[in-house]
Write a structure and sequence with these properties.
With 503 residues, the protein is of the alpha/beta class. The chain has 21 helices and twelve strands.
């Protein structure tokens, strides 16, 4: 049996002592490590394509949590940070596999990195790891103990309410088949949990479960992630690498946020669904795979088809079986069970014992609308375990609740203080440096002024509509409007400022 290829680990660590210690430790583990002083997508895309794991320092002297979140969408990330519970929470929220404390502790390194390397070697095709009894039944993204917990706990979570009992019944019907399944629902409702349950109840349960977030990976990288590449396919590709479809052969691939996939890739995905064949980037021959495909989206795919943003033939391919997961606010009976599950889970992960949530806190959480659904609840449990108290947790929920909840009945003004559009706002006009006026001699608005007024009103209307659709979740609205979160906040402020000018 050929030896597995060594894992390539990239170290973007400002702390020189920590970087040196990790290089030594990784060498003992048989990894190839490469320290870098700076890291950016624009300059380092070829290098990132070849990397199996990124060790990234965050916080003082390192990257921001927003940068960590971006890189975590492309490849596995282990964060290094000062021992600050708040920073640890933000790193976990950004998608880090685990967080190492600075200054480094060798025992902690060995304990935390062991699980990460185990999964990475499984994904890389390490047959010896696959045949090991300790991981034979484990999904690729969890240790064996978590897999057993998955089988015993998730079915219970999916049967706590009448709404989820119906979902569970549908899952039990489709799981034994190889039919493509489309999971629909708001962001954070548990679509990945449903996908894992389908996989665990299928004849493929002892094979790989591979998750791909189509929204988190840049378009120029997604094709190589899904289908792999041959040596020489692009600059820096010194050797080939299998894609996620190859790694999922015999098992299940979960394509999250399928509606975000670029139209060029949709055609290639359609070919895989039809024939089971695809070609790596730069390859001269096709490969055949046996993969069960589960897709998920929080968008209306039929609307995307009408807009020309999603292929109609692909829509019918992925929409063989549709399962809709209701939001958490529609199934609040599950909240106590979910809280107990996630608190126990992260107590084990972080090695911290915490007291059960008291009755007053539980009552408050039962009244919360959970606009972020199960993901918001899970993050709250992480924070509770890390911080160890409820005061800060409840304060943060109350603050978010004031900005994310719907406006009062009959009030058409959002809680973000975007005021109604005035009929004829006085917008400062740009004369292009010519000194010419944009208002006609008779006081009639010029075409330029009319156009700017229309654009201003349309922009504001689009923002307000998207905020209503996302229940005033500004981050989700920014994602759907394809602008940065900061840009959306600035735009909201600009709109408010212009309204004040017009008064």
């Amino acid at each position: 049996m050929p030896s597995p290829r060594p894992l390539l680990v990239l170290l973007a660590i400002a702390d020189k002592a920590a970087a040196a210690s990790l290089v030594t430790h990784l060498r003992k583990l048989g990894c190839v490590s490469e320290p870098v002083e700076t890291l950016s997508l624009a300059d380092d895309l070829p290098r990132l394509r070849m990397t199996d794991l990124l060790l990234l320092q965050i916080g003082t002297g390192g990257a921001s949590c927003e940068q960590a979140k971006y890189f975590a969408g492309m490849l596995p990330v282990v964060a290094l940070a000062e021992p600050d519970p708040e920073l640890f929470f933000e790193a976990a929220k950004a998608g880090a596999e685990t967080v190492l404390s600075l200054p480094l502790n060798l025992a902690e390194i060995a304990h935390k990195l062991e699980k990460v390397f185990e999964r990475l070697r499984m994904e890389a095709g390490d047959e010896r790891a696959r045949s090991s009894e300790a991981v034979a039944s484990a999904p690729l993204q969890a240790p064996a103990s978590a897999h057993r917990n998955l089988h015993s706990t998730i079915p219970r979570l999916f049967a706590t309410s009448d709404e989820m009992s119906e979902v569970r019944e549908m899952i039990e019907k489709v799981a034994p088949t190889s039919a493509t399944v489309l999971l629909r629902g708001e962001s954070g409702v548990g679509k990945e949990l449903a996908a894992r349950l389908i996989h665990s109840r299928s004849p493929r349960a002892d094979q790989a479960f591979i998750k791909v977030n189509c929204a988190a990976i840049p378009n120029e990288l997604l094709e190589s992630e899904l289908f792999g590449y041959e040596a020489g396919a692009f600059t820096g590709a010194v050797k080939g690498k299998p894609g996620k479809f190859e790694l999922a052969h015999g098992g299940t691939i979960f394509l999250d946020e399928i509606g975000e996939m670029h139209p060029m890739l949709q055609a290639k995905l359609l070919h895989v669904l039809q024939d089971g064949d695809f070609a790596r980037l730069g390859a001269k021959r096709d490969l055949s795979v046996d993969v069960r495909v589960i897709c998920a989206t929080n968008q209306q795919l039929d609307a995307l088809v009408s807009d020309g943003r999603f292929r109609e033939d692909l829509y019918y391919r992925v929409n063989v079986i549709t399962i809709h997961l209701p939001p958490l606010r529609a199934r609040k009976r599950e909240i106590p069970e979910l809280l107990d599950y996630f608190v126990q889970r992260y107590s084990k992960i972080y090695g911290k014992a915490v007291a059960p949530l008291d009755d007053a806190t539980m009552a408050y959480l039962m009244e919360h609308d959970w606009p972020g659904n199960i993901r918001e609840l899970e993050n709250l449990c992480k924070r509770y375990v890390i911080v160890g108290g409820t005061t800060q947790i409840l304060r943060d929920i109350a603050a978010r609740h004031r900005t994310l909840t719907d406006p009062p009945a009959g009030d058409e003004v959002s809680s973000l203080n975007i005021e109604p559009v005035p009929v004829a706002p006085s917008i400062p006009e740009d004369d292009g440096g010519t000194g010419s006026h944009v208002v006609g001699a008779d006081g009639v608005p010029s075409l330029i002024q009319i156009g700017k007024r229309a654009a201003w009103a349309a922009e504001r209307a689009a923002i307000e509509e998207m905020l209503r659709e996302t229940r005033w979740n500004r981050r989700e609205a920014a994602r759907r409007l394809n602008v940065s979160y900061k840009a959306l906040l600035n735009k909201i402020q600009d709109l408010n400022d212009e309204i004040q000018i017009s008064k």
